[in-house]
């Protein structure tokens, strides 16, 4: 027995010793980091520091945490959260992180798909830019300076305060942070007219790893190229963007038309691919594909929702749709005319006539979980009908609250911008983008996350097979 005991217990003891040593080392590093912050900037830094011993730490961490997959007990948490009020606070956080061997995660809106702005497996700190959100608009010059902590909703709202015919071609979700959105390229509802958000950055203020505050002139064109689509805060902390604003008409038109399999959805999705090349660049076109229940108990179908923004009035839209995609059967009753700023509220899925003030609301929405991935379909190889039928089968296989594909038409201005103009290369030659997403609630314990995420990957692989070798039969 003594021999058996002596062979078993040293290893748990060693594990506990190493774990305790690691915890003490992290605690010491945490204290050293805090002392460093105070020595770097003792005037106001204390009011923007949050550690696990603060009662507000969890609420600060979770406020801009937009994916429940990274809000579990097993998710690594930052040793410190810094919510800077100015550039000096950011410089101090960078200097002290380097000095004490801590990684930095920079959070603008917290919408990144894999939690990269607030999670890593090594000791780290989060610089949360939520307090740096000033938006300054110059209507005469058609520019705006936007701090990286401002959300897209705040950007759109502040622009609309000054002009109803100026806009910025960013994304549809108002709580997405401008810092990460633009750093990654920035898809939006006007991409076929004006390209991506990153295509309209004309200057920047960035703090690099040495704590230097750089603009376009001082950083050089190589770095300026890299930060416009090369990934959020990969090359430093973006403090503010200088945006080139674009012109929109006083009246735009929106529509959301749905068709089920019983209403010929498969053929319509296939025909939509051929129509993209005929669309006016003023038209943004996207299809949402999802499984829905029917009126018959226990029976489901596939719903294709055709969602569009047209930069112009309804009469011109109907004429254009009749020429390019008459199969959809769009009629005037399907369409709504409104201002561009009103369309940002509409496409954020708020009820009609919701106040524009909702664009300023940063409060957390759903705490559900999701897994998403993006792919592209070449103009040379649209998806055949038989492959679409295979996709419908896969949508019916998954046990989740929502499984969805989004097909976003390319073309227009996207074809005119070189694939090397920014790090975002998906330009000419792409017919449309596919966005695969699966959502499930935190309370839904029946959902297997591993199976859910593998479904996203396998469905993407299925499309990739068609893109790569152009098979004309469904390969199950």
Automatic annotation (TrEMBL):
<dbReference type="Pfam" id="PF01565">
    <property type="entry name" value="FAD_binding_4"/>
</dbReference>
<dbReference type="GO" id="GO:0071949">
    <property type="term" value="F:FAD binding"/>
</dbReference>
<keyword id="KW-0325">Glycoprotein</keyword>
<keyword id="KW-0274">FAD</keyword>
<keyword id="KW-1015">Disulfide bond</keyword>
<dbReference type="GO" id="GO:1901696">
    <property type="term" value="P:cannabinoid biosynthetic process"/>
</dbReference>
<dbReference type="InterPro" id="IPR016166">
    <property type="entry name" value="FAD-bd_PCMH"/>
</dbReference>
<dbReference type="InterPro" id="IPR006094">
    <property type="entry name" value="Oxid_FAD_bind_N"/>
</dbReference>
<comment type="similarity">
    <text>Belongs to the oxygen-dependent FAD-linked oxidoreductase family.</text>
</comment>
<keyword id="KW-0732">Signal</keyword>
<feature type="domain" description="FAD-binding PCMH-type">
    <location>
        <begin position="74"/>
        <end position="248"/>
    </location>
</feature>
<protein>
    <recommendedName>
        <fullName>FAD-binding PCMH-type domain-containing protein</fullName>
    </recommendedName>
</protein>
<feature type="signal peptide">
    <location>
        <begin position="1"/>
        <end position="27"/>
    </location>
</feature>
<keyword id="KW-0285">Flavoprotein</keyword>
